[in-house]
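Can you give me the bound-state structure? Components:
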Amino acid sequence: MPKLIKDGAITDSSWHTVSSQTVYEDAFATKAEQLLVPFNMWQEHKAELKASDLEIGVWLDSEDDPYELSHEVGNLPLIAVNFPIFRDGRAFSSAAILRQRLGYTGELRAIGDVLCDQAFYMKKCGINSFELPDSGDADDFIRALSDFTDSYQSTVEIPDPLFRRR
Amino acid sequence: MYIYDAYDKQMLDDRIKQFRNQTARYLDGKLTDEQFLPLRLQNGLYIQRLAPMLRVAIPYGCLSSTQLRKLASIARDYDKGYAHFSTRQNIQYNWPKLEQVPDLLAELAEVEMHAIQTSGNCIRNTTTDQYAGVAVGEIEDSRPWCEIIRQWSTFHPEFAYLPRKFKIAVCGTPNDQAATQVHDIGLYIKKNSDGEIGFQVLVGGGLGRTPVIGVEICDFLPWQHLLTYLDAIMRVYNRYGRRDNKYKARIKILVKALGAEAFKKKVEAEWQNDKDGPATLTEEEVKRCKSFFTDPNYEEDSDSSDIEAAAAKDLLFDHWLERNVASHKQLGYRIVNICLKETGVAPGDVTDGQMEFIADLADKYSFGEVRVTHEQNVVLTDVKHADLYAVYQACQKESLATPFLGLINDIVCCPGGDFCSLANAKSIPIAESIQRRFDDFDKQKDIGDITLNISGCMNACGHHHVGNIGILGVDKKGEEFYQVTLGGSADRETALGKVLGPAFAQEDMPDVVEKIVDVYLENRKDGENFLATYRRIGIDPYKERVYAKAD
Ligand code: SF4
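Here's the bound-state model for the whole set.
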């Protein structure tokens, strides 16, 4: 089971992540009750997925446009943003858009190549749960969430930039 | 100068701790090379041809004498007793040891300095005109705005992993010595008819493999919106900039691909959401930042007749006054340029002793502050006219009084193949061979204003595209050759140089440059400078001369 950190603590994840290569019919093979499906699958099979008994979340790859979830964010219990490789920084913007622009308030999870060295930035962009790769050290990660005491900028976490608070 | 408060200090301490931990994890084998790479780069650390290279930020070129002394002691304690001023108002150490870097950074932090975001695919050190705050006819002092941008760009959580590096320049002076138009974002400070401050915003400028002059996407951005607008540009770039090919990843490629109009539309659509939001600048914040850049206590003074008398007797001093000293907004004061281009020394290199000397000079004669320039020189911004001869004589003793600022031997040159692992060719020896050729100072003076820039590869750290004469090192089947461009300039009328023709061998370079200069000398009219003549007569006469077959 992948290591999950949510709101600053280690927890278990009951969600099953469906990979982007999975064909739709196979997505249900695991019998998991909570499915995190790729954005493309969601787009294609939205009606059926919504009608199923399962809980459905959506994960965005770095090139997916979060604005396309505008009308869905109120209904989704989980949205994830994927880091295909840690240095691909698009997911930071996707996360910020989901929170700031679309007003998403549910669980926002980082998946993929999630490194502790980016934990703080992810948190600032509004990500509140983190699925670590097998090589990831959960304690290191939790510590890294508070690598910095504060930020200069207006962030999802604290919208007032430092200059309005200092 | 900006002075750190408890927040700034905390942020810097947090970063040092973080990087110490990252370095330890790397040395323990817990981080792979690939994972450590962007982390060390964002802390200024390259692995170079011979050793690591650490690039330290000099925010918008401003340094206190205390900071300069620290840079000197670091050069002595962690390096081989010298350092290199780059073309981006940074300073580079060529020989630090990886395991010592966290300690070195801790020492820098003692004087409120750092190497944060001096490298890597993030927002780099913001640069500006070295005469900011003292230039005659200045529209607005750019330094407080640069500081506002520095803070906004430091550890920006959304924009630390961009498609590629990102450089911002701000200019509030009439002459633009910041090469503003060849930056990813160039900001010209303007005043509208009501006297309110705003910015003309250019995007997509840059040198490197595909040199481009920035295009305007906003002709007047009221100052309150500076940061929200920058956020919008960055978000569009972060989301849509190419990541599949590092040579096509800069914002200029995105702007070209979309077209400036479409790019602007995307930015404005994004901006509408944040405009007037919490990141909107407040008057208090601008006032706070401006409070660090007030005028020093200038004495009511006028020019001293002693200086003219000294110049009449000392010819070299007279040259130095003419070339290296610029007018100042304050009566009785001058701006003094210390040219770091002594022949035989790599352009921009300074020793620990020279740094300490300059720090002392600044304390004694210029309110304890210096500036560094993208032309790799150092400036004392506030020298009393009456002190000029004393400053000159002191500089002379340290071999820092070369009186050729802006002349042909004031060569801008990247470290090239002697140090840089990306180089195709050496650049420092080319600079030296040209300097030797033009050693005769009268000849240099006769040639007059000219810029000569040398880069050791396409990355164009020596800004060769915007040199009146540009020299680029290229690799031809494993041999080093040099391509020449003519007609570049980096001022308010920025132009990219045109390629003269096939590249030359290293030993031919002094001859080639001399022939180019001869064509100018023979064709110039009515006090035209090199660039004006080139613009009038075009490239052909230069081509003919340089490639003429010997009889
Ligand atoms: S231009 Fe090329 S050789 Fe010169 S410093 Fe830059 S990367 Fe190195």
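A couple of observations. The CA atoms of residues 62 and 90 of chain A lie 5 Å apart. The longest helix of chain A spans residues 39-51.
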